[in-house]
Specification:
The protein is 33% helix and 24% strand. The protein is α/β, with parallel strands linked by helices and 195 residues long. It has one domain: Maf protein, CATH 3.90.950.10. The chain has a seven-stranded mixed sheet. Helix 1 crosses helix 5 and helix 4 packs across helix 5. It starts with a strand and ends with a helix.
């Protein structure tokens, strides 16, 4: 098992990361980390900022992800601003309601969207691994399902929202699941190349 510090303050995201990483022989641990200002213009840049800061603060290899929802009818918004879309301190429901208001008159065929996740791992010696995953879907007209977090209740894949899927099924198709499985492959290659 390999141990990494996970750079997140989001408990839901941490649970999802643990669920996906443990079967890949990666043990995620948490630490008291200072908040990092996400000033990047891309998901990859923000993931790197968070992983680098966590690595510097702990002296351990650190993994961070940055993810968000990109809606075609909104020219890719909310994008890197997904968590701040409805303003500071807004709830998941506030963000969902803002999104649904903005898509109020958009017909079903134009409600296409994708979730994007960039994962970055930074080592104390400066090495880094970056991977990205995407999941295409569409935006529902109203929230559906009780599971998940963030925009999961309005993100539909094959007619079901992420919040309606069992966790294991979501992990198989989600942007985060795809990015973390690619990360595990990159990590294995890095280990093999260093031996």
């Amino acid at each position: 098992m390999i141990t990494f510090v996970i750079a997140t303050h989001n408990k839901n995201k941490l649970n999802e990361l643990e669920r996906i990483l443990l079967p890949l022989n990666i043990t995620p641990i948490t630490a008291e980390l200072a908040e990092v200002e996400e000033t990047g213009e891309t998901f990859e840049e923000n993931a790197f900022l968070k992983a680098k800061a966590a690595c510097q603060q702990t002296g351990m290899p650190a993994v961070a992800d940055d993810s968000g929802l990109m809606v075609d009818a909104l020219d890719g918004a909310p994008g890197v601003y997904s968590a701040r879309y409805a303003g500071e301190g807004a709830s998941d429901l506030d963000r969902i309601n803002k999104l649904l208001r903005e898509l109020k008159n958009v017909p079903k065929e134009k409600r296409t969207a994708k979730f994007v996740c960039s994962v970055c791992c930074v080592y104390p010696d400066g090495r880094k691994i970056v991977s990205q995953g995407e999941c295409n879907g569409e935006i529902a007209y109203e929230p559906q399902g009780e599971n998940g977090f963030g925009y999961d209740p309005v993100f539909l894949v094959n007619g079901k929202s992420f919040a309606q899927l069992p966790k294991e099924e979501k992990d198989l198709i989600s942007h985060r699941g795809r990015a973390l499985r690619k990360f595990a492959v990159e990590l294995k290659q890095m280990k093999e190349n260093n031996q």
